[in-house]
Amino acid sequence: MVAIAIFSADPAMRRSLEQLLREDAALSIVGVIDDPAAISLLIDQNHANVVLADVPPRERLADWRIRHNQTAFVIFVDLANEEDSLDALYAGARAILPRTAKPDEIVTVIKAVTNGLAVLPGELLPTLLSGASLVGELLDDNDADRARLTPASSKYLLRWQTASPTKRSHVGWESPSTPPSFTSPPFSPSSMRTVGPKQWLGLHNSVS
């Protein structure tokens, strides 16, 4: 049986998800809460396999993912805002669903993530593939650069590529058109500065 925790600040959303899950004998609800600060304790006490979280703050999701890396987080977002979906993905969501998802879609996604799969909206694929393409283009000229690109640097370069210019400026990247460099862990906005793409790959290697 899959143990599931539900978080939403929206009472109607909480009721809807709770009613849906109670109709499936293979799913067990271990808690329904409206306070994101209570999620970690709920997971620890009840060994939740899956958390259904309705538009949680990105910082909260990242913290949950670090503390509970065996738990799958299914995040509900407003798909009209692509950046929220990407933020959820980068913060550690195993699956992303629209808030308007149908009951059978939600149950299917829960079963998918408990079997180690990830589920993303098709609308995000062009953006993600575009970002991955940029990484490939930067490395095509020199295989040595490929060896220097760590998982962390790849993630941040992809995030830069998929963010809008407004988002890049908001999080601290100085130039909307030039990939960032991180001078020291943990790669916070205050540690970012702007250099060329090839320089970025080399410099990032020194701190990764």
Search tags:
single chain, 208 residues, alpha/beta, Rossmann fold, 2 domains, five-stranded parallel β-sheet, two-stranded antiparallel sheet, 10 helices, 7 strands, disordered C terminus
What topology emerges from the helices and strands here?
Layout (H helix, E strand, L loop, with lengths): L1 E6 L3 H12 L4 E7 L5 H8 L3 E5 L3 H10 L4 E6 L4 H10 L3 E4 L4 H11 L11 H16 L2 H6 L2 H12 L2 H7 L8 E3 L9 E3 L2 H9 L3
Parallel strand pairs: 1-2, 1-3, 3-4, 4-5
Antiparallel strand pairs: 6-7
Helix pairs in contact: 3-4, 6-8
- CATH class label of the largest domain: Alpha Beta
The unreliable regions are 144-149, 170-174, 180-208
- The end-to-end span amounts to 40 Å
Count of DSSP strands: 7
> What is the radius of gyration?
19 Å
Instruction: Tell me the CATH superfamily of the largest domain.
Output: Response regulator
Specify the CATH architecture of the largest domain.
Answer: 3-Layer(aba) Sandwich
Q: Supply the helix-strand structural class.
A: alpha/beta
* Sheet having the most strands: 5 strands, parallel
Order of helices and strands: EHEHEHEHEHHHHHEEH
- Overall mean pLDDT stands at 75
Sequence of strands across the biggest β-sheet? 2-1-3-4-5
The proportion of strand residues reads 15-25%
